[in-house]
Structures are given as structure tokens and as C-alpha cells.
Input
Amino acid sequence: DVPASTLAEIRSFNPNVKILAYIPINGTWEAAPLFPAGSKWREMYEVCEANDWWMYNTNGDHVYDHPGKWTANMTVDCPVNGQGKRFTDWFPDFISQSVLQTGASPWDGVILDDVWVGIYFINANTELNPFPIDANRDGEADGQTQLDALWRTGNESVVNRLRQIMPANEILIGNGGNPFYQMNGAMIETFPFKGLPEGHPLGFTWTSKMFGTYGYFQNEDNYSANPIKMNVVNTKWALGDRNDPLRTAEFERQKRFVLASTMLRDGYFSIDYAPETGGGHFSIWIEPEFTKPIG
Output
């Protein structure tokens, strides 16, 4: 929903910049009906609402995969509309035609959030989801093995078809661990935390984030370089605000550690403000290293 004038202004500073449209693969904000007319988030909401493509729990309520965000049903249990389509059939066309405008938009591609190989894990947050997922709406909780298999198939079918129909020169990356290597890369968030525990005194999980199944090295080895490979290593900082971080000694150490880790391969380094309450990816500060020819 970023105005084209804003994208043009960004390009005026760097004509070689690559700007990707951001949108989740699996749903939209429950408040999206309040967004302005023409909003892509609102368009996705209205289509899901009209076709009843939401994911529900055993109590018949909406499923949340993030606070305030309703999950769409990406399984074969999603209802079919009058055109014989489920959500996973519609979504690639939505991105290619409405968001990217078949190559006529000012975007250089798209980053799909929440590209996951499973969805069962969100049941663990009972504050967000008091009742378990019921994809087929039979009133019974779905088992993990079957639900995650259906979810993985749905995600893979979306990125497969989207890569086939979107312009070949535009970039497709995702956020979330996955082996859908027809895409051009993935963002690894919260680096070097939230991986497999390894007993580090600061809680680092560097080894799995770098070399694990969906780690940075695997991403660099496997994602497609057609048209370009774009893997992102992202670290978050909770002190300060979106305009400026609180640049403590620990901030500098974390920044340079993650930057050095990124430079072990050919990916892109990212650091931004993310308060303890969640969110992030909206920082507008610049670091001195960004202007140096160091990689």
C-alpha cells in the first residue's frame, strides 16, 4: 500500500535499489476493512470474507497466526468458490496481477511473509488461539502430522505457481524457514537467536541459524539465482525507536557480529528496531557500515 511517489523518491537516491512489496502468504489484518479503498490488504480481506476462505478453530472462531491477523485456509479443506478456486488458487494471481500488475507496478518483486512448512505450532499460543485449528470444520482438532502436511503442500503450490506466472525478471523471496527453493531467497529473522539451543551464555543459536536445515548456508546454496539470489540475515534491537537505536556497546557488538556472519556468504545484512512487545521492520536509520565498501 506504499504510494508510488514514495518508491520513486527512494529510487532517486539509489537508482539501483531493489524494492519488494511485502504481503503475507496466509492472511491479512482483521482491521483491513478499515484500510483505504485500493489497499491490497483490504482486497485480500474482502476476497477471503466473500468466499469464506478463513481458517477456523474448533469453536468456529477465526485463527490468528499473529496478534490482529486472521489466517487464511491454505489447505485442500478450504471451500471452493463459484469459479472452482480455493485460496491457494487465487493468491498467485492476486500477487501477479493486482500487486505486481503483470510487471507494470513500480515494485521489483515481492517478499511473502509467513512462508511456513507447518501451522500446527500456533496452537501452542493458547492466549492467541484458545481453541485448536479445525481446517475441515468437523468440530475436531486437527492432528499435527496431517495438518502440517496439508499446510506445506498449500504453501509450496502457491510459490510454485507464482514463480511460474510472475515476470521472470522480478524477485520472489519469503520469510520463514522452508525448502521452496524455486524462490530467490528467504529472510532469517532474529539472528542469532531463536534457533536450536546451544548453551551460549548470551542465548545465541548461531550454529543452527547458520548451518541448520533452513539456515543461512543452506539458503545460499539452494535458492534460485534467477533473476537474482536475495537471502537476508536480520537482527533486531529493542532499545531506542524506529528513528534511532540506542547505540550501546552491546548494540555495536551485535551489529558487527551479525554483519560479519552475513559476509561469510553473499546475502544481505539487516538490522532494525523491534520492541519487546513485538513488531519491527519499519526502522529508518542508517549505519556507518552501510556506506563503506566492505563486502
User: Anything to note?
Assistant: The beta strands are 21-24, 27-29, 64-66, 69-71, 109-113, 171-175, 186-188, 232-237, 268-273. Residues 144-165 form the longest helix (22 residues).
